[in-house]
Each structure stands twice: as structure tokens, then as C-alpha cells.
Amino acid sequence: xxxxxxxAVAIVLWGVNGLLMKLGTNRVSARSMVIWVTCGxxxxxxxxxxxxxxxxxxxxxxxxxxxxxxVNGLGNWAVFACLEKGAKASVAIPLTxxxxxxxxxxxxxxLKERPTGLQWIGIALAVAGGAMLSYELxxxxxxxxxxxxxx
Amino acid sequence: xxxxxxxxxxxxxxxxxxxxxxxxxxxxxxxxxxxxxPLQMQILFTxxxxxxxxxxxxxxxxxVDREPTGIACGLLSGIATGLGTLxxxxxxxxxxxxxxxxxxxxxxxxxxxLAFVVLRERLNKIQAGGMVLALASIVILSF
Lengths: 151, 143
Hints:
The complex is a heterodimer of chains A (151) and B (143). Chain A has 151 residues and is mainly α. Chain A has helices at 3-25, 30-51, 59-84, 89-96, 100-110, 117-133, and one strand spanning 137-139. In chain A, helix 2 runs antiparallel to helix 3. Helix content of chain B is 76%, strand content 3%. The longest helix of chain B is centred in the middle third of the chain and has 27 residues, at 68-94. The N and C termini of chain B lie far apart (41 Å). Classes of the chains: A mainly alpha (151), B mainly alpha (143). The interface between A and B is large, with 116 and 117 residues.
């Protein structure tokens, strides 16, 4: 099959997932969502283990992979908590998709990688885009809700 | 509608926390993928998620929310993410990451479109502009 079909499958599934995350957190708590989502990942485990094994991997790589998985799980909890606290899916999903910005920063700090000119433009756009996406104006309180002004 | 101006919302704190955790995940994946295949990494990620889920379960004293639609959304979310990742890896077998990753990075467009139709969510003009810039940055940073 052509690679673009596989890429399209990824886009559709990840895109639909953003909606599922919001629909789910409208009904169950963020912590419960972490548990159910992890169950969803576990369902795929036997099929993945059929395709490949973990033999031959060094202890260091296995440890890094496991820690990465745990960190990913904590990120999942944070995005569910974000949606649970009222973030729109159409804001939270594009905003959290900016995580490569943090990856680039970590690679700069610990792997001494230096961004190219184009990547610097990407970083600037990510910061500006993130700030603009976060711009949610608080609704005006009705006069009854407002505290009396002390003269 | 009149507004009181911008206030730091609680959800934004969690979004920034998520960016940090997923950013760290991306960094660790980068280190691990030097010797492990993407599929092997995905298997390790799944095993790595288990202690977090167990921690949540213990913290809730085993009282997981069991609303059927919520459970279905959670399970489907995990399956969709996992299968989407497998599709992404399959595309990488015959095409360079510098082509596939920026392309698949535009998936939030679909979420925004679905949220517009299904959840009737509306972005203000500043947020819509922010989404365009965010997508451009995702594509650029994926190279």
C-alpha cells in the first residue's frame, strides 16, 4: 500500500482521537480516562508483540522506553485534566500538539543540538501560536455576581 | 459580549504541563530510537504507561468511573492513538520522516473540524490565527 494511505490513516485516527478525548472527559474523570486509554493501548499489545519482540535490546534502551511510556502517561493525564477543567478540544489539541517545542529545548540543553534557521522560525511561530490559542476571554459577570465595590 | 479581559485559566496550566511531559517523552524517544525500532519503542511505551495507570487506580482507591460512553471513548482513544501510530510507522517504511511527520502533524485540523461540527465549539479570531501559526510551527519543527 502507498505510504500516503498509512499517513492518512494516522491523521484520521489521531484527529478523531482529539474528539474522543473531549467526549470521554465530559463523562468520566481525567484519572479514569488515563486508566481506560491505557487499557485501549494494552488491547493492541498482543498484535504488536506478534510483529516484533524485545530481544536484543540493551537494558538502557528498555529503561529509557519504559520511562518514556510513563512520562507519556503523565502527559495523557495532563491533557485529560486540561479538557476536564473546561478547555475546548479545538484549543487543547492544537495547543498540546506544540510539545515538539519542549523536545527541541531539551535536545538543545542536553544533546547540545543547535536549531537551524528554519527551526528557529518554527519555535517563534509555536510560541506566538500557543499564546494566541490560549487567549480565552473570561465572560462578564452579571451585576448580581459582582462583589460590591468598597468606597 | 463584554468581557473582563484575560485571566490565567486552570486548564492552561494543565496544557503547559502536558507540553512538558510529552516534550520529555519526545526527547526520551529520540534517545531510545537510536537502537530500538519504532514498534519496539511503542511496545515499551505501553508497558511504561501501566505503572501510571496503576498509580491513578490506587489514588482513586479502585473507584474508576464506569459510565459506558466514557469507557468506550477511553478505550477507543487508546486504540485510535495506537493504530494511528502504527500507520505512521508503516508510512515511514517507504517514505522519509521529513515528509511523513510534517504531514501527519496537521491532525489537529481534523479535531478542530470535528469539534466545530459535533461539539459546536467556536474559536475566537485570535485563537483561529493561533491555530494557523501552531500548525505552521508543527510542520516546520517536524523537519
